[in-house]
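batch job 7 of whatever, protein = LPS export ABC transporter periplasmic protein LptC
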Amino acid sequence: MRHVKDKNTRKLKLVLVSLVLATLGIIATVFIGYRHILNKDADLISAITKKANIAIGKFHHTATRDGIKEWTLDARTAQVINAQNQAIFQDPTVIFFMKDNTQVYLTADHGILHTDSNDIEVSGNVVVKNENYRLTTEKLNYQHVQRIIFSRVPVKIVSASSQLTADSMSHDINANQTVFKGNIKGAFGEKILL
C-alpha cells in the first residue's frame, strides 16, 4: 500500500510541477508578446508624430509677444502638416489686438498659419474690419515679426464717408500706417477719419 501511495504522490508532484512550469511558460509568453506589441505601438506613434497630418475641428491659437496678446486665430477646421510647418484652415477668423486697445477682425474662406514663424496667409472673401473701416480683397498676408498686413491683389476699403480702391496695400500695425499702390481711386465725403 505504501508503494502505491508513493507512486500516487510522485504522479501528483509531477503533475503539479508540470502545471507550474506550464503556467510560468504561458505567463512568460504573454509578457513577451505584450512587450512586443507595446514596442510596435511606440514605433507607430513615433512614425505618426514625425509625419503628422492631423485634422482638428474648432481650432484656436493665440500669439503673444513679451506677455502681450497680439492676435488670436479661430477656425472651423484645421489640418496640421508638421513636415511643412503649416496649419491649413477652413473659415479662419483672426482678431488683432492694437496698442490703443481696439481690435481688428479678419475673416476668410481659407487660411494658412506658418507654425515656424506665426505668419498667416488667407484667401477667398477676405474681410478686415474695425469700428470705422471695412477692407475686402481675395488674398491677404500677415507677417508676424514686423506686424504687417499686406495684399498684392486689388483691395477695396469702405467707411461711412469714403471709399478707396488700389491694386495693392500694406498696413504696419505698430506704426498704424497704410500704404496703397497702383491704380488708386477714391471717393471721400465730408467726415474723413485720418
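notes: The first helix runs from residue 2 to 50.
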